[in-house]
C-alpha cells in the first residue's frame, strides 16, 4: 500500500511507527474508509496473546506435542521430546 507524504508526516508528529500502522492494517476493523484498532480491541488482543503464550509454554514444557490424524479422525497424541 502506498503511503502519502501527508501520512508519513503525521506518523512522525504523532509517534506512530510503521510497525503500528501495519499491525492496525492486519488486525483492525474496517469502518467506512478507516481501519480502526481501539484501546478496547488492543487490550482484548493482549489478553488473547497472553492465553496463547500460556498454552505455548505448556506445549514447550512437554518438549512439543504430536497429534496423529487420519482424515477427520484424531488417532492419538503424545509428547514430542525430540524431532526426527
Structure description:
By secondary structure, this protein is α+β, with helices and mostly antiparallel strands. It folds into two domains: 1-37, no CATH class; 51-84, no CATH class. The chain is 51% helix and 23% strand. The protein is built from three helices and four strands. It has helices at 5-14, 18-27, 39-61, and strands spanning 29-31, 34-36, 65-70, 73-79. The strands form two sheets. The chain has a two-stranded antiparallel ribbon with strand order 1-2. The protein is elongated. The mean pLDDT is 94.
Number of helical stretches of at least 4 residues: 3
- Count of discrete structural domains: 2
Helix-strand category: alpha+beta
Global mean pLDDT: 94
| Helix proportion | 40-55%
Judging from the principal axes of the Cα atoms, what is the shape? elongated
CA-atom Rg in angstroms:
20 Å
Number of strands: 4
Low-confidence stretches: none
What series of H and E elements makes up the topology? HHEEHEE
**Widest sheet: strand order?**
1-2
Q: Please report the distance between the alpha carbons of the first and last residues.
A: 41 Å
- Profile the largest sheet: 2 strands, antiparallel
Short description:
This protein is an alpha+beta fold and about 80 residues long.
Amino acid at each position: 500500500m502506498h503511503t502519502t507524504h501527508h501520512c508519513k508526516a503525521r506518523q512522525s508528529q504523532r509517534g506512530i511507527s510503521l510497525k503500528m500502522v501495519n499491525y492496525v492494517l492486519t488486525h483492525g476493523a474496517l469502518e467506512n474508509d478507516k481501519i480502526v484498532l481501539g484501546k478496547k480491541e488492543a487490550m482484548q488482543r493482549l489478553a488473547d496473546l497472553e492465553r496463547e503464550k500460556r498454552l505455548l509454554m505448556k506445549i514447550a514444557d512437554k518438549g512439543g506435542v504430536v497429534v496423529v490424524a487420519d482424515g477427520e479422525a484424531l488417532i492419538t497424541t503424545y509428547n514430542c521430546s525430540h524431532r526426527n
